[in-house]
Design goal:
By secondary structure, the chain is an alpha+beta fold. It contains 11 helices and 7 strands. It folds into 2 domains: 192 residues, Lambda Exonuclease, Chain A, CATH 3.90.320; 52 residues, no CATH class. Helix 2 crosses helix 3, helix 4 packs antiparallel against helix 5 and helix 4 packs parallel to helix 6.
Length: 265
């Protein structure tokens, strides 16, 4: 199977490859709970998660820099009012784009090849990545549009963390770095080109240090053998019991204690 931008997110690609998002579907991150049952249901087509409005807004900014905005607009007509104007969230997306483009330093990181697809067999499974801005021989850059770049998230048994750890972008960084190294022979630094959705958008180029990347790689190596067996149908996937998918298939058979109502990561 040859991966392209058109089939990158297809069911066939999801079955053959694992990407950062699918890995986090299985294993979660510091702040997000993974669910093996939901991950398998998504791969097999039994469950579909529609993008949230916030995700669509972020995709608008991604599409602008990938030079696929016209295609994005054609596929997402609901971003327009009946009069043909952009709805408020996407006007904000335009503001974010304009703020980014005013910053010369930020734009240096966005000057690489766009949406570069690579695959590699690592730890016994085929991985796929799509790089937002690939500066060949220099850096891997991923564009992220967040509500607030500086929000501190509290995670039990972890403490306060940034959006990078909370959403598992350190895991994504380790995956991207490893796949690029297999393809190029170069261990390149990974940067997040971040912008916020605040009234006055914040922007930063965010590096992830070697120690954090190594810790993420060790975590992935620890979990990947089970994921391989799950995707092969050799193991029964565990249910988290609280995600949308688990709620949809829930069958009650006994009462629970009220203390069990509190969600835990």
């Amino acid at each position: 199977m040859k991966l392209t931008l058109e089939n990158y997110h297809s069911p066939e690609a999801a079955k053959k490859y694992i990407g950062a998002s699918q890995y986090k579907d299985f294993c979660g991150s510091a702040g997000l709970l993974g669910c093996e049952a939901r991950a398998i249901a998504k791969i097999t087509g039994k469950w579909e998660e529609l993008p949230t409005p916030a995700m669509v807004m972020s995709s608008y900014v991604d599409a602008h820099f990938a030079k696929t905005l016209n295609t994005f607009k054609g596929k997402n007509q609901d971003i327009f009012t009946k009069g043909g104007a952009l709805k408020a969230p996407f006007k904000k997306a335009e503001e974010i784009v304009q703020r980014i483009e005013r910053d010369e330093y930020f734009m240096k990181y966005m000057a690489g090849k766009k949406q570069v697809i690579m695959t590699a067999t690592i730890t016994g499974i085929e991985w796929k990545i799509a790089i937002d801005s690939f500066l060949e021989g220099i850096a891997i850059v991923d564009l992220k549009v967040m509500a607030d770049l500086r929000k501190a998230f509290w995670v039990k048994d972890f403490g306060y963390c940034s959006f990078v750890e909370y959403y598992g972008y350190d895991l994504q960084a380790a995956i991207y770095q490893a796949v690029v190294e297999v393809n190029t022979g170069q261990l390149l630094p990974f940067f997040i080109a971040g912008a916020s959705k605040e009234d006055e958008p914040d922007i930063e180029i965010i590096g992830i240090d070697k120690l954090a990347l190594r810790a993420a790689s060790i975590e992935i190596e620890r979990n990947i053998k089970r994921i391989i067996k799950l995707k092969a149908g050799e193991l029964e996937p565990d249910k988290c019991g609280i995600c949308d998918y688990c709620r949809s298939i829930k069958v009650l058979n006994k009462p629970i204690h009220f203390s069990e109502l509190i969600r835990r990561i």
